[in-house]
Design a protein that fits this description.
By secondary structure, the chain is an all-alpha fold. Helices cover 62% and strands 0% of the residues. The protein contains six helices and no strands. The chain is globular. About 17% of the residues have low confidence.
Protein backbone atom coordinates (compact mmCIF):
# COMPACT_ATOMS: atom_id res chain seq x y z
CA UNK A 1 0.00 0.00 0.00
CA UNK A 2 2.88 2.33 0.80
CA UNK A 3 4.33 1.83 -2.69
CA UNK A 4 0.96 2.54 -4.29
CA UNK A 5 0.53 5.77 -2.29
CA UNK A 6 4.04 6.89 -3.20
CA UNK A 7 3.42 6.13 -6.88
CA UNK A 8 0.10 7.95 -6.85
CA UNK A 9 1.69 10.98 -5.20
CA UNK A 10 4.38 11.00 -7.90
CA UNK A 11 1.79 10.78 -10.69
CA UNK A 12 -0.20 13.65 -9.15
CA UNK A 13 2.91 15.80 -8.74
CA UNK A 14 3.95 15.18 -12.34
CA UNK A 15 0.47 16.05 -13.58
CA UNK A 16 -0.10 19.27 -11.67
CA UNK A 17 1.52 21.40 -14.34
CA UNK A 18 0.29 19.39 -17.32
CA UNK A 19 -2.09 22.13 -18.51
CA UNK A 20 0.71 24.65 -18.90
CA UNK A 21 3.00 22.21 -20.76
CA UNK A 22 0.66 20.44 -23.20
CA UNK A 23 0.43 21.65 -26.76
CA UNK A 24 -2.64 19.64 -27.77
CA UNK A 25 -5.66 18.03 -26.17
CA UNK A 26 -4.17 14.60 -26.85
CA UNK A 27 -0.95 15.59 -25.10
CA UNK A 28 -2.90 16.97 -22.17
CA UNK A 29 -4.95 13.76 -22.03
CA UNK A 30 -1.76 11.67 -22.15
CA UNK A 31 -0.24 13.72 -19.33
CA UNK A 32 -3.23 13.77 -17.03
CA UNK A 33 -6.31 11.69 -17.88
CA UNK A 34 -4.93 8.50 -19.34
CA UNK A 35 -3.93 7.12 -15.92
CA UNK A 36 -7.54 6.33 -15.06
CA UNK A 37 -9.60 6.81 -18.22
CA UNK A 38 -7.58 4.45 -20.45
CA UNK A 39 -8.11 1.51 -18.10
CA UNK A 40 -11.28 2.46 -16.24
CA UNK A 41 -9.41 2.54 -12.93
CA UNK A 42 -11.53 3.31 -9.87
CA UNK A 43 -14.70 3.35 -11.98
CA UNK A 44 -13.57 6.07 -14.41
CA UNK A 45 -15.42 5.86 -17.72
CA UNK A 46 -13.03 4.65 -20.40
CA UNK A 47 -12.05 6.98 -23.19
CA UNK A 48 -14.20 6.30 -26.23
CA UNK A 49 -16.79 4.22 -24.34
CA UNK A 50 -19.82 6.18 -25.46
CA UNK A 51 -22.24 3.99 -23.49
CA UNK A 52 -20.39 4.73 -20.24
CA UNK A 53 -20.18 8.45 -21.03
CA UNK A 54 -23.80 8.93 -22.13
CA UNK A 55 -25.41 9.15 -18.67
CA UNK A 56 -22.66 11.53 -17.61
CA UNK A 57 -23.05 13.69 -20.71
CA UNK A 58 -26.80 13.77 -20.12
CA UNK A 59 -26.05 15.76 -16.95
CA UNK A 60 -24.54 18.52 -19.09
CA UNK A 61 -21.05 19.81 -19.70
CA UNK A 62 -21.24 22.37 -16.89
CA UNK A 63 -21.92 19.59 -14.37
CA UNK A 64 -19.08 17.46 -15.72
CA UNK A 65 -16.63 20.37 -15.54
CA UNK A 66 -17.78 21.08 -11.98
CA UNK A 67 -17.15 17.44 -11.07
CA UNK A 68 -13.61 17.69 -12.44
CA UNK A 69 -12.94 20.96 -10.64
CA UNK A 70 -14.31 19.81 -7.28
CA UNK A 71 -13.51 16.11 -7.54
CA UNK A 72 -16.09 13.38 -7.90
CA UNK A 73 -16.15 9.84 -6.55
CA UNK A 74 -12.53 8.61 -6.78
CA UNK A 75 -11.37 11.51 -8.98
CA UNK A 76 -9.47 14.15 -6.99
CA UNK A 77 -10.23 17.87 -7.43
CA UNK A 78 -8.78 19.01 -10.73
CA UNK A 79 -8.57 15.45 -11.96
CA UNK A 80 -4.87 14.97 -12.54
CA UNK A 81 -4.33 18.43 -14.03
CA UNK A 82 -3.99 21.18 -11.47
CA UNK A 83 -3.17 23.81 -14.11
CA UNK A 84 -6.06 23.06 -16.46
CA UNK A 85 -8.61 25.73 -17.22
CA UNK A 86 -12.34 25.16 -17.61
CA UNK A 87 -11.75 25.22 -21.36
CA UNK A 88 -9.10 22.51 -20.99
CA UNK A 89 -11.51 20.37 -18.97
CA UNK A 90 -14.24 20.83 -21.60
CA UNK A 91 -11.84 19.87 -24.39
CA UNK A 92 -10.63 16.83 -22.45
CA UNK A 93 -14.17 15.64 -21.75
CA UNK A 94 -15.07 16.06 -25.42
CA UNK A 95 -11.90 14.15 -26.39
CA UNK A 96 -12.72 11.27 -24.04
CA UNK A 97 -16.34 10.95 -25.12
CA UNK A 98 -15.63 10.47 -28.84
Amino acid sequence: MKGFATGLALVIAMSLSAGAQAESVKELYDQSCTYCHASGAAGAPKTGDQAAWKPRMDKGMDTLVKHVEEGYNAMPPGGMCGDCSKEDYRALIEYMTK
